[in-house]
Description:
Blueprint: H1 5-21, H2 24-32, H3 35-48, H4 53-77, H5 81-89, H6 91-121, H7 127-144, H8 147-157, H9 162-170, H10 175-183, H11 191-204, H12 207-219, H13 227-259, H14 266-277, H15 279-311, H16 326-345, H17 350-376, H18 379-382, H19 389-414
Amino acid sequence: MRLSRTKRSSLARKIGLFWAIMGPGLLTATADNDAGGIATYAIVGAREGYSMLWMLFLITFSLAVVQEICARMGAVTGKGLSDLIREEFGVRWTFFAMMVLVIANIATCAAEFAGIAASMEIFGVTKFISVPVMACLVWLVVVRGSYKKVERLLLLFALTFLSYVAAGFLSRPDWTEVAKGIFIPSFKATPGYILLFIATVGTTITPWMQFFIQSTVVDKGIGVSQYAYERLDVFFGAFWTDFISFFIIVSTAATLYKAGITIETASDAAKALAPLAGRYCSYLFAVGLFGASTLAAAVLPLSTSYAVSEAFGWESGLDNTFREAPVFFSIFTTLIVLGAAIVLLTGVSPMKVMLLSQDVNGILLPVILIFMLKLSNNRRVMGEYVNSRTFNIVAWSTAAVVILLTAILLVLTVFPGIFHPGGI
């Protein structure tokens, strides 16, 4: 049955509008699959096989709901999350949140440059070339570009994640076992499994994401009238990021888990895949790590710049020049320099840097989730766009689980000998 010309024209306009608005949700969720995230998912597959895929399936819904709440607040209020926190909860809480966020993001930025270094070393490029070159390129692209140009260029890097889909198929998984892992939940009451469970949740839903998506919605000028399209962008982004995570787990489960090979980083996984699934699978994994790390190396400092500038009323936004928003771009520049310097000038293990950032993020995330939920249910702030009952159930359940997992993580961090020795 053919559509009439009017309906075809209307459909074309809607598709065009969606493509014009698409960006904040997809970019935020995609950048979440950074070096630390890829390492975590690779470890999940290598150590537990397909058995934790069911958890990834459930986390996708929680991620979509949490991201939608922040995007909606940005569209309705025209303000960033840190701006709303300052207005509703005062300067002290805002200062606390910003301090913890900055500390976490410095560690995470260093982890991203460590990911760039590790991925390029697989191709024979030393970190003393790859890290400074990519740091300069990321800085130039962001500081010299408009929001629209930066967003489109960063979204192009999202295409590198398709290499993980290809790697997943090249690893020749047992799809029957994959299906069982998705639909049949399993759990082990062991410290290693619990720590890996916590790390997987913590790397999928992070504090910086909530600040970044709300700020980019505001920066892009998306209002209530266009929000239906932005909502699709948010949901598609949540699906896309965990679709990629799924194939990272599948590729390492089908090879490393089957061979009994243990790993600690994403680059370990890339190297170990070569003799098991072929050098092309190894190269594809490395390409994905490079793209993911580069994308996150731009987005993480940006999220910090947005959050801190909004929190204290400083000018922010990529459409401004350095002179118009000096603090915004100075924060971005400082994080780029610090992240690259930590990798180049210190002997700190990238894995330790990643774990530090996860610990700090774990402390901050429950606080941010509670702020978000109180704000998004405040009719004075949101009017008729407060959370629905379904969204509140999912969001509060997510917050409760995260708080419980954070408490467990803190106990295991402070008292590492409470269980038998060992980590994830």
